[in-house]
């Protein structure tokens, strides 16, 4: 049946959902006052039977344990099963067309919806296990969404439209003969929201995340194996790709002296990178070699603070299809933060902030921190908390503007600084 590849799983989810609804209805009838919880999971036990009515036709689902033998239909195929338990569907022969053409697709649709609604997304990682190319996971619960992400709304809409086109593009990719995957390169200074963007993308698409610590992957072969073990509907992330390994030029086998690491993080990455035998060509194969087409529906995201350090082969279009610059905080991004952190859309200092942000490079993380209420009731959308956060931000921006003026001459924001000083005098 078209589009019902996981019929057993869909039927199982559908039946659990039906059972739960019936149980709720029964409980409401017998003890309405005690119906506090409305979410619980039920499933059919072995040898149980559940009936269902669809457009006036009654059907019966039987749950058959593995040991009871698998029923082989006239077409030589098993009943709906996962290699263990089987569901056998019984109905009157006059309903055959209705069941095959309408009821089973309905079960698939509903079952899939139940699975999506109840699915816990996962964050997989290979980090922390030494030379380990095994995935371990935790439940993914990052709260970042495109609503909370501070950036230019037009850019945000463009990215969301791009993700929609990808998610709905199965047939398109098949038609043009391209693997169903898309590469995003997120670049920009630290603290501008690259990780937040990845979490927002995962929440928007409802995908799992595979976060690869490249320095913990021993060889190209391990990297390929890890890719094969990832599932569809996932985002595969390699953060800080520029300091993960010395990938520049390894493809051409030139001996390049690695850049001297500057931070402790870069020191340890450099140590691990020396030990890892993953090469640029291994990584390029991982991103879009033949193996990378297996399974489909994968987004690959690379992040870097130094896009200029990356090998052009790695970031060329077709491999990294969309380059997204996460830049310093602009006024539009500030407005998102002000709404989310302080519940304000307008304030007398907004004009000052607009002028200052045009001149001053400040990360979104820094602005977010300055807008974080410092006392319990500050963030309730009114009162002194809002004023003190916003004036604190303006003061910080003015300080930066002054420092910039000292080193680089006057700027438009000096006008604001001067005006403020005049008022204070
Ligand atoms: N664009 C943004 N929108 C909302 N919050 C942001 C944004 N940028 C930064 N932040 C805030 O700053 C924190 C750090 O941001 P994030 O980790 O996403 O930045 P990053 O660019 O990935 O940094 P790094 O390059 O150091 O990994 C986030 O937890 C969030 O609170």
Automatic annotation (TrEMBL):
Region (Disordered): 252-273
Domain AAA+ ATPase: 180-330
Pfam family, one: AAA_lid_At3g28540
Transmembrane segments: none
Keyword Magnesium: yes
GO terms for biological process, alphabetical: response to stress
Cofactor(s) demanded: Mg(2+)
A GO term, aspect molecular function: ATP binding
Substrates-to-products reaction catalysed: ATP + H2O = ADP + phosphate + H(+)
Keywords: Magnesium
Family the entry assigns: Belongs to the AAA ATPase family. BCS1 subfamily.
Name of the protein: AAA+ ATPase domain-containing protein
Taxonomic source organism: Sorghum bicolor
């Amino acid at each position: 049946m078209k589009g019902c590849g996981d019929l057993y799983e869909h039927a199982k989810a559908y039946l659990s959902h039906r059972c739960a609804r019936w149980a709720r209805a029964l409980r409401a009838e017998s003890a309405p006052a005690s119906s506090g919880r409305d979410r619980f999971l039920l499933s059919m036990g072995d040898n149980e039977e559940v009936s269902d009515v669809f457009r006036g036709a009654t059907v019966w689902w039987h749950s058959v344990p593995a040991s009871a033998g698998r029923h082989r239909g006239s077409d030589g195929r098993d009943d709906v099963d996962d290699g263990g338990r089987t569901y056998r569907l019984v109905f009157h022969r006059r309903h055959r067309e209705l069941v095959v053409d309408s009821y089973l697709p309905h079960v698939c649709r509903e079952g899939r919806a139940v699975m999506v609604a109840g699915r816990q997304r996962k964050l997989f990682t290979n980090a922390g296990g030494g030379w380990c190319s095994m995935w371990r996971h935790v439940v993914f619960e990052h709260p970042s969404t495109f609503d909370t992400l501070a950036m230019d709304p037009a850019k945000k809409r463009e990215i969301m439209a791009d993700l929609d086109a990808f998610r709905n593009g199965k047939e398109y990719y098949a038609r043009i003969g391209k693997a169903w995957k898309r590469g995003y390169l997120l670049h920009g200074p630290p603290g501008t929201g690259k990780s937040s963007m990845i979490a927002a993308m995962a929440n928007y698409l409802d995908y799992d995340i595979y976060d690869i610590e490249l320095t913990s992957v021993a060889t190209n072969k391990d990297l390929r194996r890890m890719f094969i073990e990832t599932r569809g509907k996932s985002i595969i992330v390699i953060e800080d790709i520029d300091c993960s390994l010395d990938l520049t030029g390894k493809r051409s086998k030139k001996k390049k002296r690695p850049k001297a690491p500057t931070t402790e993080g870069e020191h340890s990455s450099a140590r691990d990178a020396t030990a890892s035998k993953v090469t640029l060509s291994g990584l390029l194969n991982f991103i879009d070699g033949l193996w990378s087409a297996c399974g489909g529906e994968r987004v690959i995201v690379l992040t870097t603070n130094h896009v200029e350090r990356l090998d052009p082969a790695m970031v060329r279009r077709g491999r990294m299809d969309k380059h997204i610059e996460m830049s310093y905080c602009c006024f539009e991004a500030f407005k998102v933060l002000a709404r989310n952190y302080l519940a304000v859309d307008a304030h007398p200092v907004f004009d000052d902030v607009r002028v200052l942000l045009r001149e001053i490079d400040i990360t979104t993380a820094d602005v977010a921190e300055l807008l974080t209420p410092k006392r319990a009731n500050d963030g309730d959308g009114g009162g002194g908390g809002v004023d003190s956060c916003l004036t604190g931000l303006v003061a910080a921006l003015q300080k930066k503007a002054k420092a910039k003026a000292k080193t680089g001459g006057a700027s438009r924001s000096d006008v604001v600084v001067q005006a403020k000083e005049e008022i204070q005098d």
